[in-house]
Write a structure and sequence with these properties.
alpha/beta, Rossmann fold, 3 domains, 6-stranded mixed sheet, 4-stranded antiparallel sheet, globular, binds adenosine-5'-triphosphate, binds magnesium ion
């Protein structure tokens, strides 16, 4: 069920420009993690380093007992098969239709027959809601559909680790919500380790199990969602709450005069907003990597901001959680009793009312994002 990535003391520079240094973190197996950071802080460079496309200057990337930067070419090639990657620009082949783009890794890396390839490609296109678009060229589909085609391609080799770089850039908020739901549902199904780079604060606040933040050539923090959402660390607090007040300026770092002006005006970063409940699977199953709401805060003696974990209907999910888990089959277990992906109890059941969930089964081909 997914593979852990352990990064130790990773440093990368291009010529004399250090992109980031001494980055250490563990991306837990089977969990969803988000990496944030201002534009140009090296998030894409980080993903490319994880998959072995860029070589770090120093440090280790452990996948099991294999240290990626030190693997001989043949072993690196084998290890790369554990990864599915959705690059920032989608990286589809412009002259190939959607079907052939998605089939490409299977034809390149496996000896599967064309009928086996067809079955896998169609399954994956169905998963991302692109059935019916097989014959279209990348130039003939929307930006969101390109992202989904790239995602289907990243999934065909059954990756243990899925890296996605800004899957939501260029998408409208509704389509971003559907895409987020796709990720949560997908991970509950395939149990892969997922690392998403995004600029979307709502995604960062509600989707992942863990959040990391790159700033000023450092990894400022990486840890459970609740740890970062309740953090008073100025950079984390400013970024996760999309505030102007704080150390981050227009060109990454505020200068002294800007900070002094802010202090003179008496600007203060304000109270932390509540920690929202996490986005659930649309069939109401609990993901294997999912943590109980409030568990991190309770274990670390942190009182979350008032109103945390309370949904639109006023239910406190710290209290609801044990009942919810008891009523739900875990991911990979038997499917819920009710038909059509509806949670037990139907649309009025706890899964159907879980905050942030679009109605189940809504990201089919017709959704068009
Ligand atoms: N192959 C390369 N050669 C030289 N410099 C590079 C290369 N790739 C990236 N860079 C530089 O590394 C820095 C980080 O780039 P990167 O694309 O990782 O930023 P990012 O955090 O992904 O930004 P964004 O949020 O805009 O996508 C930039 O200054 C960029 O110019
Ligand atoms: Mg980038």
């Amino acid at each position: 069920m997914g593979v852990e990535i352990r990064v130790e003391g990773l440093t990368k520079s291009f010529g004399r420009q250090t992109i980031w240094q001494d980055v250490s973190l563990t991306v837990p197996a089977g969990e969803i993690s988000v990496l944030l950071g201002p534009s140009g802080t090296g998030k894409s460079v980080f993903l490319k380093s994880l998959v072995g496309l860029l070589k770090p200057d120093r440090g280790h990337i452990w996948i099991g007992d294999r240290d990626l930067p030190r693997l001989p070419e043949a072993q690196l090639y084998e290890t790369r098969k554990l990864f599915g990657v959705l690059f920032q620009d989608g990286a589809l082949f412009g002259s190939m239709n959607v079907y052939d783009n998605v089939a490409f890794p299977l034809r390149e890396h496996t000896k599967k027959s064309e009928s086996e390839v067809r079955q896998i490609v169609m399954n994956n296109l169905d998963l991302v809601g692109l059935l019916g678009a097989e014959k279209k060229l990348p130039g003939e589909i929307s930006g969101g559909m390109k992202k989904r085609a790239g995602l289907a391609r990243a999934l065909v080799l059954d990756p243990e680790i899925l890296l996605v770089d800004e899957p939501d850039s260029g998408l409208d908020p509704v389509r971003t919500s559907y895409l987020n739901q796709t990720f949560v549902d997908l991970i509950s199904e395939i149990n892969a380790t997922l690392l998403i780079v995004t600029h979307d604060i709502n995604t960062a606040r509600t989707v992942p199990d863990n959040i990391g933040l790159l700033f000023r050539r450092e990894l400022v923090m990486f840890g459970p969602r609740e740890m970062l959402l309740s953090s008073e660390e100025p950079v984390v607090r400013q970024f996760l709450n999309a505030r102007k007040v704080g150390p981050i300026g227009m060109s990454e770092e505020k200068d002294v005069s800007e900070l002094e002006a802010e202090a003179k005006l008496g600007d203060d970063p304000g109270k932390l907003p509540p920690i929202p409940p996490q986005l659930m699977t649309s069939n109401g199953r609990v993901r294997r990597g999912q943590h109980a709401p409030g568990a991190w805060c309770a274990a670390h003696g942190v009182t979350p901001p008032p109103g945390s974990f309370i949904d639109d209907l006023g239910r406190n999910w710290v209290e609801e959680w044990p009942r919810y888990v008891a009523s739900m089959a875990p991911a990979g277990g038997p499917p819920p009793a009710a038909p059509g992906g509806m949670p037990p109890g139907g649309p009025g059941g706890p899964g159907g009312q879980f905050p942030g969930n679009p109605p189940p089964g809504q990201y089919g081909a017709g959704a068009g994002y």
